[in-house]
Amino acid sequence: MTRFTPADLEAARDRLVPDVVADGLTVLFCGINPGLMTAATGHHFARPGNRFWPVLHLSGFTPRLMKPAEQDELLSYGLGITNVVARATARADELSAEEYREGGLLLSAKVERRRPRWLAVVGVTAYRAAFGDRKAQVGPQERTIGASRVWVLPNPSGLNAHWTAATMAEEYARLRTAAAEG
Fold first, then answer.
1. Among 29, 100, 132, 153, which is least packed by CB within 10 angstroms?
2. Which fold has domain 6-180?
3. Sequence-separated (6 or more) residues with CB below 8 Å from residue 142
C-alpha cells in the first residue's frame, strides 16, 4: 500500500469518492462518509485499521478477503458501497447534523432509484442522525425505502471497540442470511 504523508491525507479533505453501485444489488452497504485515506486512494474503507473488508469475508459475503483496491469486484457478488455524506473528513464528528439529514435525503433518493434489496448502514449513530430515528438499534429496521429493506450494522472502524471482528461478522452474517432468503 502506498504510504501517504499527513500533507497527502490533508489534501484529500472534502474529496468525493465514487460509489460502487449498480441497479438491483442484493445489499448496498452505506458508510458514514469517506475518511481521508479512502479519499486519497479512491477506495472505500481503505484505512488499515478498518475492519470492513475482513468482516465482509468472515461473514460470508465474499469468498476471500478482498483489498480496498478490489472494491469493484463487489458488484459481481451483488454488493455495493455508498456513504451517507459524500465529502471526506478526518473524523465523522466533523460532519454537521444538517449534513447527516441532507445525506439521508440524498441516500433515500439513491436507494429509490437503484432499488437494492437491502440498504445496510454501517453505524447506528449515523443512521439515527441521517433518518431522525433516535431509538434505532443494530439489526433490521421497520423503515423501508421504496421496496428496499434497511439493516443497521455496527461500524467497522477500528475506533468502535464495542464490537470485535467476530461479533461484527455474526451481525453481518445475519444480514447475509436475510438477504439470501429474499
1. 132
2. Uracil-DNA Glycosylase, subunit E (3.40.470)
3. none
Q: What is the pTM of this model?
A: 0.95
Instruction: Work out whether strand 139-145 and strand 118-122 pair parallel, antiparallel, or are unpaired.
Output: unpaired
Query: Is 33 an active-site residue?
Result: yes
Contacts of 157 (CB under 8 A, 6+ apart): 47, 49, 50, 51, 123
Identify the active-site residue in 43, 44, 83, 155: 44
Domain layout of the chain by residue ranges: 6-180
In the set 33, 50, 83, 155, the catalytic residue is 33
Could you give the C-alpha distances from 168 to 47, 72, 95, 108, in angstroms and in order? Answer: 17, 23, 25, 25
Is 44 labeled as catalytic in the residue annotation? yes
Report the pLDDT value the prediction gives residue 130, as an integer from 0 to 100: 96
Rg (CA), the chain: 15
Per-residue pLDDT, averaged over 105-111, amounts to 98
Average pLDDT, the chain: 94
pLDDT at 154 over 80: yes
Taking residue 174's Cβ as centre, other Cβ atoms within 10 Å add up to 16
Asked if residue 159 has pLDDT above 80, the reply is: no
